[in-house]
Design goal:
Blueprint lengths: L9 H11 L3 H8 L3 H13 L6 E5 L8 H5 L3 E6 L2 H10 L6 E2 L12 E7 L8 H11 E12 L5 H22 L4 H12 L3 H11 L2 E8 L4 E7 L9 H4 L1
Parallel strand pairs: 1-2, 1-4, 2-3, 4-5
Antiparallel strand pairs: 5-7, 6-7
Helix pairs in contact: 2-7, 6-9, 7-8
Length: 242
């Protein structure tokens, strides 16, 4: 199985990422025209990792996204549910504590991390609401969430060009550089089906995150979403949160 469907069965998604692990970072560099490095810097700035803090990097893949937090002095846990990605990450960066985990059932205690982040992975989770609540659970009160995800360009002409690129240009390019080009057909379809910026912000608020905000990158092709875990006294009662 190298192609997941849009119902995002975990076994299919994990197998798809197992298949692309070896060339995943190279393929992303090519398909994103190098912009993914700029996006990673924006994530690192938003997370603001500091020495002594604990950072959970979900959908970390081979660990490329985790390195800036570790370089800043934070204890960083790269977590992914693709064994192929984890194996490739351990081979490249053997000193990092790569951990197998599903975003909807995180293998961590409550209130552990100062920051939780996920880049280009929330879109692949079958139950986004459950995942957002799990991220809230493992974050300490006052801690922060940073999501970097493909989104919807805010300028209509760019939206048209981008949509054409996703469905027409991306698959042929992927066939030349990826070990599993079919996976990138799913990538294009999943981006088109993903909620827009206000829609994802509402999902964060519904899951219990406060101070929710977003910032568009590359004209809205990618968006950084942020939220804060409220202190216990600030959390809404169960009836209010429903």
């Amino acid at each position: 199985m190298t192609r997941a469907s849009l119902d995002k069965q975990p076994s299919e998604v994990a197998a798809m990422f197992d298949a692309v692990a070896a060339k995943y970072d190279l393929t992303n560099d090519v398909l994103a025209l190098g912009q993914n490095r700029r996006w990673r810097r924006a994530v690192a700035d938003a997370v603001g990792a500091r020495p002594g803090q604990r950072v959970l990097d979900l959908a970390a893949g081979t660990g490329t996204s985790s390195l800036p937090f570790a370089d800043a002095g934070a204890y960083t846990v790269p977590c992914d549910f693709s064994q192929g990605m984890l194996s490739e990450g351990r081979r490249r960066v053997p000193w990092m504590p790569f951990t197998a985990g599903d975003a909807t059932r995180l293998p961590f205690a409550d209130d552990v991390f100062d920051a939780v982040t996920i880049s280009f992975g929330l879109r692949n989770v079958q139950d986004v609401d459950t995942a957002l609540r799990e991220m809230l659970r493992v974050t300490r009160p006052g801690g922060r969430l940073v999501i970097c995800e493909f989104s919807h360009p805010t300028w209509a002409p760019l939206r048209t060009v981008y949509s054409e690129y996703l469905m027409r240009a991306l698959p042929p390019v992927a066939r030349k550089v990826s070990s599993s080009p079919e996976a990138y057909v799913y990538l294009a379809e999943s981006i088109r089906a993903w909620p827009d910026q206000p829609g994802l912000a509402r999902e964060l608020q519904h899951a219990g995150w406060t101070s929710v905000a977003w910032r568009n990158l590359s004209g809205g092709i990618v968006t950084l979403h942020r939220g804060t875990k409220p202190a216990p006294a600030d959390r809404p009662a169960a009836d209010d949160a429903a």
